[in-house]
Amino acid sequence: MRQTVVLTGANRGIGLALARLFVTSGNWRVVAGCRNPDSAPELAALASENPDALAVHALDVADPASVSSFVAAIGERPVDLLLNNAGVLGKHQSLDDLDFEAWDHEFRVNTMGPMRLALGLLGNLRKGTDPRIVTISSQMGSMARPRGGAYAYRSTKAALNKAMQGLALDLSDDDICVVVMHPGWVRTDMGGSGADIAVEESAGGIFSVVTGLKAADTGRFLQWNGSEHDW
Ligand SMILES: NC(=O)c1ccc[n+]([C@@H]2O[C@H](COP(=O)([O-])OP(=O)(O)OC[C@H]3O[C@@H](n4cnc5c(N)ncnc54)[C@H](OP(=O)(O)O)[C@@H]3O)[C@@H](O)[C@H]2O)c1
Fold it and tell me: Would you say 44 and 159 are in contact if contact means Cβ atoms under 8 Å apart?
């Protein structure tokens, strides 16, 4: 029987590559969220080619009402994997050009969004098989890598890591595995054309890792290639 993955930010970048992998595996049903389904032609084409394997719903992870509507569209169905991929890296993050409003928005997307989805889908995950909550974080949020600049992005991903570490502990009695991942430095709109790895390599690695996770993996910070990342 096919498992169900809920995937956010599925219309471009790593999210779109992940949607393709889950759909073409034949083993998964994908519930994909994206902000503007009407402006997501590649995701729409994938859905029309695979109507039984992919459903697309509007989702702005920074908007509580949008998250509620998205969760309501999923209904009572079991969810085996929540894959929080949506994220934003704003401009104006240096000391001489810090945009606090944008930082606030980034916090809503990168930190609170994944928590809103996790809590909204907790009942569905409790009914899932090997239930997992995987959130795409970043090495830029790691305390083990002291760096300046990118204040908003780094801090929202560091806060995300801390929130997910706590969630892993709080959900351990439910046998829900909670993991954060660094996807590599990836050639997407966010990573830029000079980044280290192709989106297919990142998504392929993430797919292998998340489909193999067990409850005992909870609380880990992993890289796309399966190796451990320092917190
Ligand atoms: N690329 C890298 O090198 C790299 C490195 C470390 C971590 N990451 C993380 O990997 C994840 C995917 O990044 P990417 O490189 O694929 O970025 P990307 O190409 O910029 O795509 C970002 C995705 O997130 C969506 N998104 C942004 N704000 C959203 C919101 N409020 N609600 C719902 N969706 C929203 C975007 O949708 P729209 O099209 O509507 O904007 C888009 O689908 C992110 O969490 C990012 O922080 C990336």
Answer: no
C-alpha of residue 51 to centroid of ligand 1, in Å: 24
Q: What is the pLDDT of residues 158-208, one digit of tens each?
A: 999 999 999 999 999 999 999 999 999 999 999 999 999 999 999 999 999
Q: What is the rounded average pLDDT of the residues 50-61?
A: 98
The answer to whether residue 228 is domain-embedded is no
- Locate 98 and state its tokens: 């810090």
CATH code for position 113: 3.40.50.720
Between the CA of 1 and the centroid of ligand 1 the distance, in Å, is: 30
| pLDDT per residue as tens digits for the range 19-34 | 999 999 999 999 999 9
**What residue ranges in 9-52 does DSSP mark as E strands?**
28-34
Contacts for 192 with CB less than 8 Å, ≥ 6 apart: none
> Terminus-to-terminus CA distance in the chain, angstroms?
36
Interval 64-85 mean pLDDT = 98
Angle at CA of residue 105, ends 184 and 101, nearest 5°: 120
**Atom 20 (ligand 1): residue with closest C-alpha?**
190
Q: Residue 97 domain-assigned? A: yes
Give the CA angle between residues 43, 47, 48 to the nearest 5°. Answer: 120
Residues of the domain holding 77: 3-223
Does any domain span residue 230? no
Q: How many domains does the chain have?
A: 1
Is 218 inside a domain boundary? yes
Q: Which residues line ligand 1 (CB under 6 A)?
A: 8-9, 11-15, 34-36, 59-62, 85-88, 109, 136, 138, 182-183, 185-186, 188-191, 195
